[in-house]
Amino acid sequence: MGKQAFDEIMGAPGDTRVRPELAALGRWIEETPDAELRRRQQAAETTFRQLGITFAVYGENEAAERIIPFDIVPRVFLHDEWTRLSEGLVQRVEAINAFLEDIYGERRILKEGILPEDLVMGNAQFRPEIAGMRPPHGVWAHICGIDLVRTGPDDFFVLEDNARTPSGVSYMLENREAMLRLCPELFREFRVAAVDSYPDRLLETMKSVAPHGVSAPTCVVLTPGHYNSAYYEHSFLADTMGVELVEAADLVVDDDVVWMRTIAGRVKVDVIYRRIDDDYLDPLVFRPDSALGVPGLIAAYAAGNVAIINAPGNGIADDKAIYSYMPDIVKFYSGGECKLPNVETWRCREPQALKYVLDNLEDVVVKLVDGSGGYGMLVGPTATKQEIEDFRAALIAEPHRYIAQPTLALSTVPTMAESGLCPRHVDFRPFVLTGSKGVQVVPGGLTRVALKQGSLVVNSSQGGGTKDSFVLMADQSQRMGAGGMTQALGGMTQTLGEGMPGPEAQS
Amino acid sequence: MRLSVDHRTIYRFTEPQSRLVQMLRMTPQNTHDQTVAQWRIDIDCDARLRQGRDGFGNAITMLYIDGPIDGIEIDVTGEVLTSHSDGVVHGAYEVLPPALFLRPTETTAQDKAIADFAARVTTPAQGRIGALHRVNEALHERFTANPGRPEPNLGAAAAFRLDSATSRDFAQMFIVAARSLGAPARYVSGYLLTEREDDHRPTPHGWAEAHVDGLGWIGFDPFTGDCPEEHHVRVAVALDAAGAAPVAGSRLGEGGERLEVDVVVSRDGQ
What PANTHER family would the database entry show (chain B) (predicted)? Predict the structure, then answer.
């Protein structure tokens, strides 16, 4: 199937020439010797290893700390493609926020029969413990990482909405830094939107959702600690934002207010970017055996004295069982058609869908409703007979635990393999920030690439790598000096220039 | 009926604690058949208290104490007027829809033995309300009522294998049985007027409510075998006993703790 895929640089299947807009990139690929590309790739990976951007692989005997392989050939979004994609992302994230506000409040969407009630009420991701509570400014999903796949120039599909604590943004930033250093010529050739303002934008977002009446909010990043596989990212974000990185033991709640212990005494905390799961937030409300949590945190939240980013209870919005209803959810809250489609999804809890899936196991991808990271998944076309039979038995036994999707011809990007540059399948996680003033899409993101030939599994725990993701700026920006420009991005006006350095300033 | 409640909870720590944070679900709320005439929570040390609500709509009191502290005594006293309602709950503050209460939890997990029992003692002809009454009676008949303190973390399935049951165990078994019949069911913590006046009990009371379309939430108390009427004071509801527990606490410090609870419910004006 890799043969029929759209290549984001080389163009549609059968095309003999590079996509015209990316001719310069095609030349760069052509003219730079493989050995040189490999040298740069290794230089980048050496830096990542020194920085300690590692992750632990689950299920391996030795608790191996590995770096995620980096590929030197970037993936590129043309300006127009990005504009359309951004509109879809903004619409989707606005709907996710509206859905969370509704489902923990009035539940209009259930009363109107758009979603089956049992799917929400019986779902462990719907947290009754926080029902009726409302985050400051009504913002729930401050940071979303919407996983997308692509099958053609403008054909994007949402694979997964990550509305809890999506990770990977440090790769977006570190990959860009490496590319600027190792391949500066590409940034002379192309006007690439900068991503290095992300920490500033994140901090701005955090401050914007501080409880009402707080003029100079104190923000912190809450980490489960340095054993966590994403600890590097936690400390990186705290560092780049210039805020404290804290663990639960550094925070106390008193009188429904959160305080941070410091050498200089107690400091009131207004906004917490937590990188721990709901279960571990507050042992008085969630898991009582949790040592990671802050006793009283939910009381402080319920009293409106602290913003928790992302809000507790968000798991119901990115749950795989809810996912298949997302087009209806978007339509319900936005009043318009869903601009970013889902991948077609069969809900195995429905008998007809189950029958179709069982009849076509060789062609579909089957996923556990509550699985993640590429575990508990069947990729029909590459599975063994035994794996298919195992899944058949599991599906018949517990159909409600599974969904299935067609195997899409995921787009490819040339990627350095043993034998030289070859097409490899990619996906994409853009980061979308929501503050009290609106939604913004960061012009870039995390591109994950399946390094094995023909593989569609891009998860880092399953042998995936990453690439830089270029978003090209509008034509006139190529002629732009140091002055600056304003660009309407999905309903939100975003100022480039002063707030956000152009490519020259960056390189 | 005018009921007066005196509920004392004492924690003694083997080592002084540097901080104590507790969430108390110890305040009853008004319904059509329950009027809280007076209610107070007294703490025997310098504590900061904050009122709020949990996700189930229960009234909570957050309690914050700085150490060093080697013990705490929480004294809850009050008077509640109750009236006869045939067990149907009217006018309670509800945040969540009944469908939520079909959800199993760790201590109210689905259990084949309980489901079989529920199926065996009921017939479809009884209708939902009849079947729930039958389960209530059948549980009451099957187990000896144990007025003592419940064993921590004992789930319904494990409780079903024993001969006697505390009010908590009765209620959680009822919940599992009712859900197995398709009825949303939840745990209620509160107080019960005992037959012998001025009886000291080592634990508050617990019972269950099940939802029947058209009627609403109906109380069932398999410990007594009846539906709660004027003898019960309803305080908090949740999916299971842990969720409705009078105290959820966290302390910062070494060592263990000893808990003493003394509950007296009496009838006023006699």
Answer: BLR5614 PROTEIN-RELATED, SLL1049 PROTEIN
Q: How close, in Å, is residue A284 to chain B by CA atoms?
A: 5
| DSSP-H helix ranges across A19-67 | 23-31, 34-51
What mean pLDDT is predicted for residues A94-108? 98
Q: Tell me, rounded to whole angstroms, the distance of Cα B196 from its chain centroid.
A: 20
Rounded CA separation A371/A357 (Å):
18
A157-166 tens-digit pLDDT: 999 999 999 9
Q: What are the residue ranges spanned by the domains of chain B?
A: 2-80+247-267, 85-244
Q: Is the pLDDT of residue A475 over 80?
A: no
Name the residue type at position B1.
Answer: M
Which residues of chain A neighbour B22 with C-beta distances below 8 Å? Answer: 284
What is the average pLDDT score of chain A?
88
The candidate with the shortest Cα–Cα distance to B267, out of B49, B79, B120, is B79
Residue A130: alpha-carbon gap to chain centroid: 24
Q: Is B99 on the interface with A (CB under 8 A)?
A: yes
Q: Give the residue ranges of DSSP H helices in A226-316.
A: 231-241, 297-302
Q: Look at A261 and A493; give whichever has higher pLDDT.
A: A261
Does residue B42 come out as left (phi exceeding 0), alpha (psi in the -120 to 50 range) or beta? beta
Element (H, E) at B185: strand B185-192
Of B22, B55, B100, the CB nearest to A121: B100
Residue in A with minimal Cα distance to B63: A255
pLDDT above 50 (res A480): no
Residue entry with tokens 């299947």 = A13
Position A83 pLDDT exceeds 90:
yes
- Confidence label for A502 from pLDDT (cuts 50, 70 and 90): very low
CA dist A494 and A487 (Å) reads 6
Which chain B residues are closer than 8 Å to A296 by Cβ? Answer: 21, 23, 62, 64, 250
Q: Which helix (H) or strand (E) holds A403?
A: strand A402-406
For the domain covering B85-244, report its CATH number: 3.10.620.30
Q: Which fold has domain A344-407?
A: Dna Ligase; domain 1 (3.30.1490)
Residues 202..261 of B with a Cβ closer than 8 Å to A: which? 239, 242, 248-250
**C-alpha to C-alpha distance for B23 and B8, rounded to whole angstroms:** 16
Tell me the nearest-neighbour CA distance from B28 into chain A, angstroms: 19
Q: How far apart are CA A50 and CA A152, in angstroms?
A: 37
Q: Least CA distance to A130: which residue of chain B?
A: B55
Contact B97 A117 (CB under 8 A): yes
Backbone angles phi, psi at A451, to 5 degrees: -75, -20
CA neighbours closer than 13 Å in the CB half-sphere of residue A238: 22
Cis peptide before A310 (omega within 30 of 0): yes
Ordered DSSP codes for A112-163: TTSS-HHHHHT-TTS-GGGTT---GGG---SEEEEEEEEEETTEEEEEEEE-
| Residues in chain B with pLDDT values less than 70 | 197-198, 269-270
Cβ–Cβ under 8 Å, residues A2 and A423: yes
Does A252 sit within 8 Å of B99, measured CB to CB?
A: no
Give the distance from residue B163's alpha carbon to the nearest chain A alpha carbon, in angstroms: 29
A113 in contact with B, Cβ within 8 Å = no
Cα A77–chain centre separation: 17
Q: Which CATH number fits domain B2-80+247-267: 3.40.250.10, 2.60.40.2250, 3.30.70.2740, 1.10.275.10?
A: 2.60.40.2250
Residue extents of the structural domains in chain A: 344-407
Closest CA to A240 of A207, A196, A276, A175: A196
Q: Is the pLDDT of residue A55 over 70?
A: no
